[in-house]
Fold Acetyl-coenzyme A synthetase.
Amino acid sequence: MSDKTYPPSDAFAADALIDAAKYEEMYAASITDPDAFWGEQGKRVDWIKPYSTVKDVNFDLGNVAINWYADGTLNVAANCIDRHLAERGDQTAIIWEPDDPKDDAQHITYQELHAQTCRMANVLKGLGVTKGDRVVLYMPMIPEAAYAMLACARIGAIHSIVFAGFSPDALGARINGSNAKVLITADEAPRGGRKTALKSNADAALLHCDDRVQCLVVKRTGGQTTWTERDHDCTALMAAASTDCAPEEMNAEDPLFILYTSGSTGQPKGVVHSSGGYLVYASMTHELVFDYKPGDVFWCTADVGWVTGHSYIIYGPLANGATTLMFEGVPTYPDASRFWQVCEKHKVNQFYTAPTAIRALMGQGNEFVEKSDLSDLKVLGTVGEPINPEAWNWYNDVVGKGTRPIVDTWWQTETGGHMMTPLPGATAAKPGSCTKPFFGVHPVILEPTTGEEITDTVAEGVLCIKDSWPGQMRTVYGDHERFEKTYFSDYKGYYFTGDGCRRDADGYYWITGRVDDVINVSGHRMGTAEVESALVAHAQVAEAAVVGYPHNVKGQGIYAYVTLMNGVEPSEELRKELEKWVRTEIGPIAKPDLIQWAPGLPKTRSGKIMRRILRKIAEDDFGALGDTSTLAEPAVVDDLIENRMNKG
Ligand code: WTA
């Protein structure tokens, strides 16, 4: 990995909310006296009853309890809407950009957001939803998704969003898992010029659920045809509902939402986030990590079905009175210039996306970027997986024109907000490194087998967090024991992230991937991400995924699935060339033992490569592929199985 650093320009640093000196000073304070630090930061939220205690946390197995601002009360929706009305009621809160660029965008002011959220809240109340009830959302990326989240928060209901790409079975399991009273969906979800029949998926899901679950259907395309007894026309009910709804007084520790996420074993877990601590953390990270200033237009390209959408489309930006962009479409529709066209059209200042999108767009060529005016961009961000230096450099050079700081934000569904990331005016970036911890975050690297903390600056091992931060998940919904077992039992007294990590001589952190993705080849520990990064640095490679497989000499061998650039034909020469390429990029130990040409890789609908499946194929263990229902294109798996490499 390259150790070249990219410091912020003097001009950027001079204007930034946090510069290098301020980071050091505030970070030290946050670790030395967390109570004082977070006591002060808690004031960025409006409390109905102020808190008198700040942090009350126990990480000991058997007694894990996480409480922040525990005796304070607030309402999250009031913080995201009402408190802004006096000063910026007419400012745009949400810019909505539809799937089809020929359709009109919407600019929803804070005043309108207030009215619509109250209408939706009253509709929910009309269905008998009260404080503490669960409401599942299965929605397109439309403003009603935001209204629904905030409406739940307003009346104290707990939302659980299921990404609209999930199957009916997955949706049904989550409705049952959270024992939800109401499902909110829409007729159809347009995406990339195609429509997903959300309502008929919802119908299929609800076949497995209690008859008392009611369904609110938002009109998006008008394509809805069948109505059942449990259905209600949400659009009509909202039109008739009052625009007034008093916010419920909630305790800081009352759950704000549940979000299901997959672990390395078993069924997905319902990650529970709090109201007070979560909001403080989402708001603070949004402001400081993106250097967000009043009037800026912020765009996070995630879907609200993922934690990134919760924290950085809705709660963080709206708590800060920001203008946040919500995009219904995909990066490649109508063509690969869409992201950049949207940036130009809405004068986006901060742009936050995933490395997988960057790599996909990089493969399409620079002309798609160059035809758009990106002069309003100030900060670029990435999230979700380690970014390979090749993609980082393209993002930096072609999108950022070499002048916009890039924040590579490492965090998890469980953490609620950014944990390690550059601050754009403070941190010299290194491509591929998430650099330094955010305020109040105390990362430690442990020796994986002994669990000993490695105190030398240069270290490699498993990444744990030593102490709590306000955005931390509080429990697994309905299964606190699983929460303790998953995160606090392997390494006693720490929160275990499940990620491997390296710390360099400058104290910078480099995520090496999930620890279950670490492979050990001839006694050498290696991150599969490193090999992938080397492969994709080759001009003819579009994407690569690397897993370990049992090798009778080396212990584990390296199995690489390689997707070539459009128009490049696989050949034995190219295979040899790639082997040599990786040898020279990383070293002989990293040379792939097997390279399989993969027309496509199995990905979740959020774009994450499902290495579990690739590992099974590499191991010849087809019977145990597990749940493939969350794949974007299940057919790619069949192709990979059919063309798996004969390992002899
Ligand atoms: C990975 C997404 C490297 C990591 C917010 C983590 C990253 C998992 C980064 C959480 C990053 C996320 N660099 N790896 N900047 N961001 N990851 O729950 O393995 O969908 O544990 O949360 O993604 O994924 P999740």
Remarks:
- The longest strand covers residues 541-551.
